């Protein structure tokens, strides 16, 4: 389809051209002696009606002069006449009289055309002249050999004279220019060849370069190419039209740069990356280099200092990744433009002296722009925009753009600083809420992993703990608060501390969970205003006690997944524990489950984040963890890594906590039991047997203190018990002395008066031992004391 269907109506021939205009011949007397077909078409009069008659008969009005007077003129004359058409219409026409003289005979050629048509042609001609002489659009004509033929005035001004380029190829016009539009071949010769060959115009190509008339400033043109053909349709060459769109192009670049800045700057919540993001966005469109200088406090997440001298104690940041990141101390003199910018909180331009094209700029730069980083009405640093390749100074629009970019970066840096501060506080909270290392115990070997779902904050609602108990036993707990983040972590920390406190009372697991359930229920009441009640509504917990003397392990669960046990042979089984309700409901009682564990058994305590995610159900996760435990002979740290490596890749939906223990049994040579009847005379026997056992263990140095403690504890039990008294000595990391009886009344430490005959026994026990206490059993109580080994 023809792109210009009305192109045939565009005719640049003059209406007075002999090929188009009405033509007639007048003799010396002004009579019509010749009448052409074109005159008949214009006025409608046939030749036989007008030949031989005076030309005045064709005038519709009296013009005030006779045509015969024009026939005697010696030079061409033109006039606007009203001519009478055959149909009675009056035609206003432009008429030209051209005298002819040959061998004494005089004649006049008359050419006429409709005046309106002539005026339209003159307007078209004026348009062409305006494009050639006054238009800001550059027009350049190239021949079929793609060499310069002609250029209009605009092109002549850009090239500082078109004459010197006539006959030269297009590449000579802008030697260092380049097309920056990528939807067509970037080479100008290829573009021109395509237009000449196919006749298809190429329009709207953006070209960047330096005009010979302005070699210092870089320009951008919008260029279009069209083929030129003659009347027969044969190619005459092509012409290029170019429009300088530098200002518009840069405005579009600034807009796109702001859009890109809104997407990229400040998205990382990292001070270092935010500074690098500012440089990534601004280079090379706005500057050749961007530097960011910040106080050390801002980089570390602290509040920026106030009252210090501008430009002192700043760090310049380098690198775009944590591995590449480094800082360089910088300091600006009070008279420097950098210090002025920081002191006034306004941008400052520092332009180097102008240089000749191609001459390197002094100090490696031509222009610098210093913009203070402002956040919350405070100066938190300085951004420096430098130009070395582009010699153009920073104009007002570019300064405004730099200020907008810097404002975005300042907000991002301040947000990153505040986040860094909060993250550091959250990590301190984590260290205070979760055990950083678990105490070594003779009863178990331990390994653990903790992966919070909120990796940005680093804390969550899961917790675990190992609690040393009396009699070389250990308490083991794993819990989960619904949600993650700081609020869940705060609730978790309080519950973990509560479990530890209750565990030190030597409560059995079911009793401990019952008391914990009551405390959580209180926190979940509507009047609780500490902000932690919502999290407490979804708390699960498992608590277990392992005794290395008997190998007996007792646990209870409040809505928590039961542990997985792998015995010394590698056989893996899920505990037959029926979990009770989650904490805070208070609906059903909790029950203990007891299991005898062989030496070297591996027990896995875990939260549901280890075995459950959005893509797999909890049963598949438990099977996956159980399969890992079949490698129970591996070191516990390796087992932890194996277990977590099976988690699906990607972000976690829930916190994941894994606590692995390998059980150990105390040997028979480390435990000595003695049953004593309730007879006061048995106290001496208890002291004697204690002394002998300590000699056997090589602990004779502890004999005096141990005999005193045993004597007081046995005496106290025999005095109040109704049945036999059991004495147990355990050699572990300390010497443990335990006396058990069937009484449920607990002894109390009191301060005896000077005249009291008794009441000093437990005081002596407390002074001689490093710890002592009472725990209740199903048949009575046990009073215990620990003595440090020499």
Main beta sheet strand tally, sense and closure: 6 strands, antiparallel
- Helix and strand composition category: alpha+beta
In round numbers, the mean pLDDT is: 83
Shape, per Cα inertia axes: rod-shaped
Spatial order of strands in the largest sheet: 7-6-11-10-9-8
Q: Would you kindly provide a written description of the structure presented here, covering whatever features stand out?
A:
The protein is of the alpha+beta class and 790 residues long. Helices cover 30% and strands 29% of the residues. The protein has 20 helices and 32 strands. It has a 6-stranded antiparallel sheet, sandwiched between helices. Strand 21 (539-547) and strand 22 form a beta hairpin. The longest helix is centred in the middle third of the chain and has 38 residues, at 396-433. Mean pLDDT is 83; it is low at 1-8, 353-365 and 527-536.
Please write out the topology:
Blueprint: E1 22-27, E2 32-35, H1 37-43, H2 47-50, H3 67-71, E3 77-84, E4 90-102, E5 105-114, H4 115-133, E6 138-142, E7 148-151, H5 153-158, E8 178-179, H6 188-198, E9 202-211, E10 214-229, E11 235-244, H7 246-264, H8 271-282, E12 289-294, H9 296-299, E13 314-318, E14 326-330, H10 337-344, E15 348-351, E16 367-375, E17 378-387, H11 396-433, E18 444-451, E19 460-468, E20 474-484, H12 486-503, H13 509-523, H14 533-536, E21 539-547, E22 552-558, E23 564-566, E24 572-574, E25 593-596, E26 602-606, H15 608-611, H16 618-629, H17 636-645, E27 656-663, E28 671-676, H18 682-696, H19 703-720, E29 725-731, E30 734-741, H20 761-768, E31 771-777, E32 780-788
Antiparallel strand pairs: 1-2, 1-5, 3-4, 4-5, 6-7, 6-11, 8-9, 9-10, 10-11, 12-13, 12-17, 13-14, 15-16, 16-17, 18-27, 19-20, 20-21, 21-22, 22-25, 23-24, 23-26, 26-27, 28-29, 29-30, 30-32, 31-32
Helix pairs in contact: 7-8, 7-11, 8-11, 11-12, 12-13, 18-19, 19-20
């Amino acid at each position: 389809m023809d792109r210009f269907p009305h192109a045939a109506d565009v005719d640049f021939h003059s209406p007075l051209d002999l090929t188009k205009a009405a033509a007639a011949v007048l003799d010396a007397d002004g009579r019509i002696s010749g009448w052409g077909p074109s005159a008949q078409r214009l006025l409608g009069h046939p030749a036989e009606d007008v030949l031989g008659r005076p030309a005045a008969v064709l005038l519709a009005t009296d013009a005030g002069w006779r045509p015969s007077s024009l026939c005697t003129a010696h030079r061409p004359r033109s006039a606007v006449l009203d001519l009478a058409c055959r149909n009675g219409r009056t035609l206003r026409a432009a008429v030209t009289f051209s005298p002819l003289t040959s061998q004494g005979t005089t004649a006049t050629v008359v050419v006429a055309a409709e005046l309106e048509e002539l005026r339209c042609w003159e307007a078209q001609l004026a348009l062409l002249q305006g494009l050639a002489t006054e238009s800001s659009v550059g027009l350049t004509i190239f021949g079929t050999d793609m060499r310069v033929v002609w250029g209009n005035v605009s092109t002549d001004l850009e090239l500082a004279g078109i004459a010197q380029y006539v006959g030269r190829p297009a590449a000579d016009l802008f030697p260092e220019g380049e097309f920056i539009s990528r939807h067509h071949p970037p080479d100008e010769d290829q573009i021109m060849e395509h237009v000449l060959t196919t006749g298809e115009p190429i329009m709207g190509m953006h070209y960047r370069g330096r005009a010979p008339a302005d070699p210092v400033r870089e320009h951008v043109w919008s260029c279009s190419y069209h083929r030129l053909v003659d009347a027969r349709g044969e190619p005459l060459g092509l012409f290029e039209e170019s429009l300088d769109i530098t200002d518009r192009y840069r405005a579009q670049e600034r807009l796109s740069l702001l859009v890109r800045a809104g997407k990229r700057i400040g998205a990382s919540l990292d001070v270092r990356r935010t500074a690098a993001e500012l440089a990534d966005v601004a280079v090379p469109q706005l500057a050749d280099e961007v530097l960011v200088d910040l106080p050390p406090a801002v980089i570390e997440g602290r509040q920026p200092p106030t009252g210090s001298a501008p430009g002192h104690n700043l760090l310049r940041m380098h690198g775009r990744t944590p591995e590449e990141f480094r800082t360089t101390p910088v300091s600006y003199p009070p008279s420097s433009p950098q210090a002025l910018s920081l002191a006034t909180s306004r941008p400052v331009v520092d332009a180097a002296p102008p240089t000749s094209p191609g001459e390197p700029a002094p100090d490696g730069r031509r222009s610098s722009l210093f913009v203070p980083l402002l956040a919350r009405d405070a100066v938190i640093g300085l951004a420096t925009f430098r130009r070395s390749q582009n010699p153009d100074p920073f104009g007002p629009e570019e300064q405004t753009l730099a200020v907008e970019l810097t404002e975005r970066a300042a907000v991002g840096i301040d947000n990153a600083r505040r986040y860094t501060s909060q993250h550091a506080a959250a990590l301190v909270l984590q260290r205070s809420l979760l055990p950083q290392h678990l105490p070594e115990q003779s009863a178990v070997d331990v390994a653990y992993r903790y992966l919070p779902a909120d990796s940005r904050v680093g804390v969550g609602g899961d917790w675990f703990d190992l609690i040393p108990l009396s009699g070389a036993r250990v308490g083991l707990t794993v819990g989960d608060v619904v949600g993650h983040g700081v609020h869940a972590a705060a609730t978790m920390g309080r519950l973990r501390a509560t479990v530890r406190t209750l565990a030190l009372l030597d409560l059995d697991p079911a009793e401990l969970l019952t008391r914990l359930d009551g405390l959580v229920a209180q926190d979940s009441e509507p009047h609780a205003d500490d902000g932690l009640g919502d999290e407490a509504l979804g708390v699960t917990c498992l608590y277990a006690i392992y005794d290395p003397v008997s190998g007996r392990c007792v646990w209870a669960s409040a809505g928590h997944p039961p542990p997985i046990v792998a015995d010394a042979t590698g056989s893996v089984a899920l505990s037959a524990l029926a979990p009770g309700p989650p904490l805070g409901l208070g609906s059903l009682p909790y029950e203990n489950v007891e299991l005898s564990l062989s030496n070297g058994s591996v027990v896995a305590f875990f939260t549901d984040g280890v075995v459950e995610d959005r893509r797999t159900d909890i049963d598949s996760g438990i099977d996956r963890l159980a399969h890992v435990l079949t490698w129970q002979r591996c070191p516990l740290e390796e087992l932890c890594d194996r277990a977590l490596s099976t988690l699906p890749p990607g972000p976690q939906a829930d916190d994941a906590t894994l606590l692995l223990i390998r059980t150990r049994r105390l040997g028979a040579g480390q435990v000595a039991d003695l049953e004593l009847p309730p007879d006061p005379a048995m106290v001496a026997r208890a002291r004697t047997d204690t002394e002998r056992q300590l000699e056997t263990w090589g602990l004779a140095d502890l004999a005096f203190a141990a005999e005193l403690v045993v004597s007081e504890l046995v005496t106290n039990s025999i005095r109040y018990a109704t049945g036999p008294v059991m004495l147990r000595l355990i050699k572990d990391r300390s010497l443990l002395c335990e006396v058990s009886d069937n009484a449920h009344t607990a002894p109390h430490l009191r301060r005896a008066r000077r005249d009291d005959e008794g009441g000093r026994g437990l005081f002596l026990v407390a002074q001689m031992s490093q710890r002592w206490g009472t725990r209740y059993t199903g048949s009575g109580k046990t009073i215990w004391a620990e003595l440090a080994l020499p």
